[in-house]
Prior knowledge:
Elements: E1 2-3, E2 6-7, H1 16-28, H2 38-131, H3 136-190
Antiparallel strand pairs: 1-2
Amino acid sequence: MQAAGRFLSPPGMINRTEQQMTVKAKASEGTDAAAPAPAVTSGFEQTAVAFKEGVAKATAGFQTTQAQVKENVEKAMKTAEELLAFNQGNFEAVVKSGKIWSTGVQDITQQVVASAQASFDETLAIYRALAAVKSLKEAVDLQTTLARSAMEKAVSETGRLTDASVKLAEQALAPLTQRFALAMEKFARTA
């Protein structure tokens, strides 16, 4: 309902605007309307000071957190770069070890082939000699010589190939062993 340009409240209810105006009028009675109440000003100033202090603390905390995050990100990047460089070194060591192993196996294989060829040639020569023997005693002596010679060569070749294999294993593992030692040294420093 509206009366003379104003809304009227239902009977028994006070209009909120009227209520606020009444409170303001009662508050301004007996006081100077231009000067705010000292308690209100003091409370407002305290709130403003507390707000400014809170903002200053929050800003300082944010700056500290930001500096710590930046420092941690830089450390993480440095660690990632070191890890990448270390892993690259590991890969290079594996490649180097593989090359050493491959070359060594080729050398050993050539030695085995040369030994087998020499043994074959020697056996062929003995069989030719056996074909030319005139007596049984001569054949037994030749066969004994062949057996003794074959046994000595087998022992000699086995020892030589074993030594070459052990040496190859040591050479091929050397780059990996060096990387392992470096890793132990690095991890011991960081732990």
